[in-house]
Amino acid sequence: MIDGMPRKLPLYVVKQRGRLEQWVYYFRIGKGKRVRLPAPNEPDFMQAYQAALSGADLKKMPREIPQTIGWLMARYMESADWAKLEPATRKQRSNIFHHIKEKKDRSGIRLADKPFTLINRKAVMAGMEDRADTPAAANNYLKSISSLCKWAVRNAHMDANPAEGIPKFKLDGDGFPAWEIEDVRAFCIKWPIGTKQRLALELAMHTGLRRSDLVRVGRQHLRGNVLTIGTQKTKARIAVELPQRVIDIINATPTGDLHFLVTEYNKPFAVAGFGNWFGEAARKAGIEKNSHGLRKLAATMAANGGATAHQLMSQFGWSNSKQAEVYTRQADRERLGVVSSRIVSEQLMNELAPHTDQREGSIPESETKTVS
Q: How many CB atoms lie under 10 A from the CB of residue 119?
């Protein structure tokens, strides 16, 4: 599978590159008229496909009612903004929009068929409250609606973005748990040099790449020991130096021609497939964490070693300093805490030093008398 899509498309479904370089899918029998379909990994695909299969007249295939919520979402999902999103983000937001559209009001009318003017601040906040038990899902809902409305404002469908300024829910913890160095040791014991699992860990730690980039990286990205690649998510171009030890591990491991990490069938990993494969390898080593946690450990180690926010941005491909400062701030706090504790110790030593030679209860020498 590529980006979660099936290798073989259903009968009468064809695809072609759109003007924005994204794949566009159509239903077409023979040389008949083409009917636009959602992407196969989107939740509305099967319903649209079945409707196209069952209808003799494809013109009667259900379409969104203009100026409705369903219509607005459909236009957004045909836009350049949507095409620029990562496949995983498009899939996530497509699912969120699908559930919104299929929800019915008290009269049994789908939200998809109601005017999009009902998307106001009160409605968005109500959607957040409906998802309050799962804060991460609520925040993803808010980001999806905000992006939809931002696009709608820019294209003169809305006067203002009703989601703007609505606060996200605070999440417990810090998302994916970071690996500890003890976890790395346990993984290395389970997966020795020469295994693909070990190579995956070494590449993740030394490059700090996301899994969407780890599955793409190969020898074509190496110039000597320097690895350079444009990241999928932020489009930032990063360069990192691999130590000779890692180059030796690459040479000692079965790899593909253009991909260091390949499946047992010598094929490149899909992003989701790699995540599942690496997660299973971690569990076999007794570690209940995923590959993103390695990226966190690498960033933490770099910050603790003195890397600046801009150095972290350059390695990890962050587009602004906000994420980098999460790591540098913690590292700075620890370093400053050590420095501060030393100052306290020095001050105490300076205050106590003049009295350390006098034992408690002793008589000063000036007060003693000579006995003859």
A: 24
